[in-house]
Amino acid sequence: MPGGGALRLMQRGAEFSIMLGTNELMNSRLSGSEEALATMSCARMQTRKNPKILIGGLGMGFTLRASLAAFGDDARITVAELVPSVVDWARGPLGPVFGRCLDDGRVTVSIGDVGPLIADSKAGFDAILLDVDNGPEGLTRKANDDIYDFAGLKAAQAALRPGGVLAVWSSGPDRAFTRRLKQTGMKVEEVNIRANGKRKGAKHVIWFATDKN
């Protein structure tokens, strides 16, 4: 990974996982909360034509595929992925998981840090969906903290069009992050959701933030 550290792609039969050391970051059997990041964001948006969506973190493509289904044929979706190997895996050994979603004409993949992309996109997106780490506290890369600090959250707010949604995925709750998000002046909703649907898997958290006006 840029800045040090290494991700590993592991396979057992038809099951895949992405590991950082002994920490499993994601597993192909558990996709519910990542899919909800897209579907629940779409449900909270005002109806609009030609929505522009930014996804921070490709992972195993769960959020991307759910976004393609939820936002419809007129959507334009940019996926920012920091680690080039993750994109290579998506087009290679993880092909059975990804299918052909990266070949969808609505999708653009940007290799690099999502932070500068957000900072350069004033009122550029209808939804920003962030899943670049295990949550607001950087695990895979300390520099990810910049995306979740107050300045990073204000940049994300500025990158949203009126009525847009900022959605942030986390493996668990974070009271300090909730406070920071509310300090931006946005309306904040914190939702607990199972890793693989309503009843299965660990409880994950998604924050949804929109302008109060």
Overview of the molecule:
The chain is α/β, with parallel strands linked by helices and 213 residues long. The chain is built from eight helices and ten strands. It has a seven-stranded mixed sheet, sandwiched between helices. A hairpin with an 8-residue loop joins strand 9 (186-194) and strand 10 (203-211). The mean pLDDT is 90.
Topology:
Layout: E1 7-12, E2 15-20, E3 23-27, H1 32-44, E4 52-56, H2 62-71, E5 76-81, H3 84-91, H4 95-98, E6 107-111, H5 114-119, E7 125-130, H6 145-148, H7 150-158, E8 160-170, H8 175-183, E9 186-194, E10 203-211
Helix pairs in contact: 1-2
What's this model, at a glance?
This protein has 213 residues and is α/β, with parallel strands linked by helices. It is built from 8 helices and 10 strands.
What key phrases describe this protein's structure?
single chain; 213 residues; alpha/beta; seven-stranded mixed sheet; three-stranded antiparallel sheet; 8 helices; 10 strands; globular
Note the gap between the termini: 40 Å
Shape: globular
Largest sheet: 7 strands, mixed
**Strand percent estimate:** 25-35%
Estimate percent helicity. 25-40%
SSE order in H/E notation? EEEHEHEHHEHEHHEHEE
Provide the spatial order of strands within the biggest beta sheet.
6-5-4-7-8-10-9
Overall mean pLDDT score? Answer: 90
